[in-house]
Specification:
7-stranded antiparallel beta sheet, Rossmann fold, disordered N terminus, disordered C terminus, homodimer
């Protein structure tokens, strides 16, 4: 798979000429549909049907073979199968075709040897000439701006295309067609509908990087089953953030069962899903959780402007809908806008005396006799600076209600203000009246709030990612041997003393300690530490669970220290583990125990883990992931998302701990993980003692236990 | 509000005669619609329109007043407002009308004094004659079996009624009409559509208890904004469980914002939402979280039979849909069915070689050329004992696909097996073909799995509740003075020694201790305890935070104990708190720290809290609620739902703790809370030391700290 900046695939989107190898006279067949679609969509380039058995196909002259064409086509669609497909691809490469869209299936996705061998042949041929390949097993690419519809999706006949501001790029044919169909059903134009298939050369992400640069594209929807082409996905995000184009991604395989299913049909590498979340979130890409999620907020994204915040105002003629919408907002984490005194006074003037002028605003059944109520209430809410979005719920409005008036009032409000409106209208007949005016309508309050919440919170995510883009945190990073070598890389575990000193060097405060190799050094060590009670630990890179061997003693009085050191040296000798000395360390008791960890993901590279510490990190995890480089703000954001965050500010008389110190340590660890010279593979600091913000210790944090693993051979360690 | 067994409201459902006070000639007006609906729905009783200005209304003779009627009507609809409504209700009571449906609004729901006074007048009149009242502010009641449609819902014209097996009972008009409309839109018949309003006499729950006893009712949907009439709701649950009728409830006001909104429009009492959850769950009532949730699984519930388990098989012609459906199943907690070797072999025979014969089953695009694939695969899955339900996802199937064949295959499978099927079909045109055959279809895989999960998991909940019904855990309970007196009840806090001894008496193991009042008693106390180190605590019912006053010392050596006791007595004297002695207690260190608590909810009565112990119970809660009486199994279920559960079985070499002991202590505490003679109001046991299952201590659990508050005046305490 190859990454790219997305600038070299123009010919797939606007080819001067297209050959269809395996062209069919039947416009419903795979080899027939692209021809039909291109002609219906106004494609102005040359179309060359290739089929040795027919003189004419769909009214166009047909050719017996590639070699009979009047010119070398810029792109070829491969709608023949197996060995024939491979032979045609080889010939395309020889002739100088720029790109092939390989619709044939029966290759790598079947998992059989023949299919994989054929894929290698295709790749070899393409590599020799610089030709690019889409697929195989691709439903094809569609650009409705140029009419280059190199696709056999049946949905283009079910839901006729209309050029628009949305691009859909998917590794799956179905997951290209479904969003396309749902968008078109909602009356939303779609420019690109790409389904790439096996991604043996051009990846979905590489194509996405190209389409997101199209100035007419205002929203990019992605369906991915792997995130192998990280460089292209990073490029997608950077272009999207620069251009202000929101990106929504549905990544199949969130669960273990889903990953197994994905592996069985695409061979996608299993990745820890939380890392995918961290990557997408860091890059401002909203992660949809279902097909419907992928498109639910599309209409909002296409509005002009961006939302100014996340505070919601709710209006309904039903008290129950007010209650349920408020519940839904709480569930989605959207705060209700506190209305100003001026707004409440204006609402009091506008509404019957028994209506509620708090948020939610219940205009009551008085709507039946006063059809102007929405038209009066919405502008009042729109003028309140605290209101960032409005939900209007109309559960019942049949005969007797002036629905046309409600719709024109809402539509007028929408164009006169920057405040987005979403409606919850269960009655199909009533909903239709609002939809016809371009208003976003959902059938129930929970769906409406869910979609609106995505839109509002995504813009917060985008703003945070935009700051990362500006500060260089999203810059492309060179890979180093730790990624390339993968799990085969030789590893060197540092002992605890080495680990602690390495941490200090890179900026993670570690507990003060002295390594002694003989009891005679204890007195000097204690003097250096300036303490009268110490922690004593046997130090050996060969022992991971020191406590179980009796190699950890806490609170040892100065007088007993030498004896304990003697005993530990003896224990290590008896257990047959290499003694690398005995650690005498200051005792540090944290107000709380945190942890910091880091590892090297084969796909995503360095990953930092921050969370609650202690012995139950695995069994009761309370952790967040961060992908370096990241800022102190990013780390503080991760800390705030921990359950532990509820107590870090100080509860029950306890002092608050120094969160900045913890965040800074995480940033330092992230930077260290990025440094190829350090060659870090794994870091496990648990516990990290979190100390009071204004206490005597600076920095108010200490790693007291450390395991560091580096790639070997590593440069000589300056740490003893 | 009054409870009831639901047997005394027949006249509202099948009245011999109905007077409509404020009858209108306009069949779209509130006073006109019930007349129109009753006549359209085949109501065979007498209808008496009352309107002094007209001789005839909608073709029926009209009467000037109640007193002019040829007979006393069994039920009267009150469609006049304010003082007139009150006067008519008073006259109804005098004449011997059995029940009024009060549609007029402007009463208690406005919160103004006049409205509340009018409501009291209505209630007083009704109480004098035994007349029952629905409302005021009620949209009315509808029984489509008898044609007694005493309702003005506009939805009955938008979506014409059809009698069926579903009953909808709601406190809100909108939340009666919305589910009614959605069910009818899905082609599902509705027998009852009741909207009660202010519930000043008959409550929604009391009505529900009556309708759920109707032998034709197979599903009850409830919308509630308060759960004040707990007795009726309990009766609903018992009847429903006995009859095998699933009950789904949407309770508005889950969130604080929602509760505030509910209070503003109905005056509903704010209740801790987790207690509502516990009550509904205990009674086998599924709690919907949105309007759509309330009706989403209705079609499943109306199937014959009950599901045999929760294991899902997924079939699709798209690998991506297989992946996404597996993700959705994981998110909803539905396990995928492991297919037997026989099933896999049969699938291998039925499917192309490159298709997946694991679950999910990807029949691949081969479906385009072999329309029999679903018909071959489904029966194979249905025969596998591990498959409890099937999801069929068809993302793309337009021209070229034999959708009629797929639909007939699925429909045939549905009737020939007990395995429920749900479909995920985004294309409206394709979905229609399946819906026409009565198959349950959703637009996307997440919605389909969500609804199916509700259906399957609700049956597990029902089975658990059914066991509670059989063992008497759901029996109606008499209220005692603790509920009646509410927050005004005088309270007596026990001191720690009294608290611990009380716990021992009721069956909660507490730490062994001796209470001394003078240092001279220490030696004997230590001998009695048989220990050489003790915990020493000052004992005073006036001190809640002993540690802060230095009144807790842990690990005191025997030799120092007398001095510490002396010091604590002095401290209590100095702090001016009543000394009730000094506790010397055995030291107990738990493998883990749990907590048990109990309190008296003004609505729900006794509530037991079980969870992780420690000082952060409030800030980082990990608790579950249980409503007594409950069984050891119920308590174990609650423990298994704790995050802490992940470590209780023993991790990192730690022994498992005795969960049965903890569960039994919870059961004992629950029983104690139910005992009016004990008069317990609050119990807080934190921490509870959880001890190893096979360790030396029996029972393997000790409460080491206890605060008990009883209602005062209480019977003399036998505990010192």
């Amino acid at each position: 798979m190859s990454g790219g900046t997305g600038s070299g695939l123009r010919f797939f989107h606007d080819p001067a000429s297209v050959a269809v190898i395996g062209a069919s006279s039947d416009p419903e067949k795979i080899g027939g549909r692209p021809i039909r679609y291109m002609r219906e969509s106004g494609y102005t380039g040359a179309i060359y049907p290739i089929n040795p058995t027919r003189p004419e196909i769909q009214g166009l002259p047909a050719y017996a073979s590639l070699d009979d064409l009047p010119q070398v086509p810029e792109v070829a669609i491969i709608a023949v199968s197996g060995a024939t497909a491979v032979a045609q691809i080889v010939r395309c490469a020889e002739l100088g075709v720029k790109g092939c869209v390989i619709m044939a299936s029966g290759f790598g996705e079947t998992g059989d040897e023949q299919g994989l061998a054929w894929q290698r042949e295709m790749l070899d041929a393409a590599a020799r000439s610089g030709m690019r390949l889409i697929g195989p097993n691709s439903q094809g690419l569609a650009n409705f701006a140029t009419g280059a519809v190199l696709s056999f999706s049946t949905l283009f006949t079910e839901q006729p295309p209309a050029d628009g501001a949305v691009a859909v790029v998917s590794q799956s044919g179905a997951m290209c067609s479904i969003p396309y169909g749902l968008l078109r059903e909602a009356g939303i134009g779609v420019r690109y509908a790409h389904a790439t298939g096996n991604d043996i050369d051009v990846t979905a992400a590489e194509l996405a990087a190209e389409v997101v640069a199209d100035p007419e594209v205002k929203l990019l929807l992605l369906y991915l089953e792997d995130i192998a082409d990280l460089d292209s996905l990073g490029a997608v995000a950077r272009t999207a953030l620069s251009r202000g184009v929101p990106v929504v991604a549905l990544k199949g395989g969130r669960s273990e069962a889903g990953q197994r299913a994905a592996a069985s049909h695409t061979g996608a590498l299993a990745t820890e899903d939380a890392v995918v979340d961290a990557f997408l979130s860091k890059h401002g890409i909203w992660r949809a959780r279902s097909t419907r999620d992928l498109v639910a907020a599309a209409a909002f994204y296409l509005r002009p402007g961006v939302p100014r915040g996340e505070r919601l105002a709710i209006v309904s003629n039903s008290g129950a809908v007010c209650v349920l919408a408020a519940d839904a907002a709480a569930e989605e984490g959207l705060p209700l806008a506190p209305l100003s005194a001026g707004t409440r006074a204006a609402l009091t003037d506008a509404l019957p005396s028994f209506a509620s002028v708090e948020n939610p605003v219940d205009v009551t059944a008085a709507l039946l006799t006063d059809s102007s109520l929405f038209g009066k209430v919405l502008p009042v809410l729109g003028r309140d600076a605290a209101v960032d979005a409005c939900l209007v719920g109309i559960p019942v409005a049949g005969r007797g209600y002036d629905v046309e008036r409600f719709a024109s009032d809402v539509a007028e409000f929408e164009v006169s203000t920057a405040v987005p409106v979403v409606m919850a209208v269960p009655q199909t007949s009533v909903a239709r009246v609002f939809r016809e005016r371009g208003i976003v309508v959902f059938a129930d309050e929970a769906e409406a709030v869910h979609a609106l919440a995505q839109y509002l919170r995504h813009h917060t995510l985008i703003a945070e990612a935009r700051a990362r883009l500006d500060s260089g945190c999203l810059d492309p990073r060179p890979r180093d041997r730790r990624s390339e070598a993968g799990p085969g890389l030789a590893r060197t575990a540092l002992n605890e003393s080495q680990s602690l000193r390495l941490l200090e060097t890179v900026g993670v405060p570690a507990v003060e300690h002295v390594l002694v190799s003989h009891p005679s050094e204890v007195t000097a060590a204690l003097a250096a530490l300036g303490v009268d009670r110490v922690v004593i630990k046997g130090c050996s890179s060969e022992v991971t669970h020191k406590s179980e061997l009796g190699l950890v003693r806490v609170g040892v009085p100065a007088d007993d220290a030498a004896a304990v050191v003697t005993e530990m040296i003896a224990t290590m000798a008896r257990e047959g583990v290499a003694s690398e000395g005995v650690i005498l360390a200051r005792m540090v008791k944290g107000e709380h125990e945190g942890m910091l960890g880091a590892r090297f993901d084969p796909v995503f590279g360095p990953v930092v883990v921050i969370g609650a510490g202690g012995i139950h990190v695995e069994a009761m995890p309370d952790v967040q992931l961060l992908l370096p480089p990241f800022s102190r703000e990013d780390a503080l954001g991760a800390i705030r998302r921990l359950r532990l965050a509820a107590v870090l500010g100080g509860v029950r008389g306890a002092p608050p701990v120094d969160l900045d110190a913890w965040a800074d340590a995480a940033v330092a660890l992230g930077a260290a993980m990025l440094d190829p010279a350090l060659g870090l593979l794994e870091v496990d600091l648990n516990p990290i003692m979190l100390l009071p913000l204004n206490g005597p210790e600076h920095p108010a944090l200490r790693a007291v236990d450390a395991v560091v693993v580096r790639a070997a051979p590593a440069p000589d360690l300056p740490y003893r």
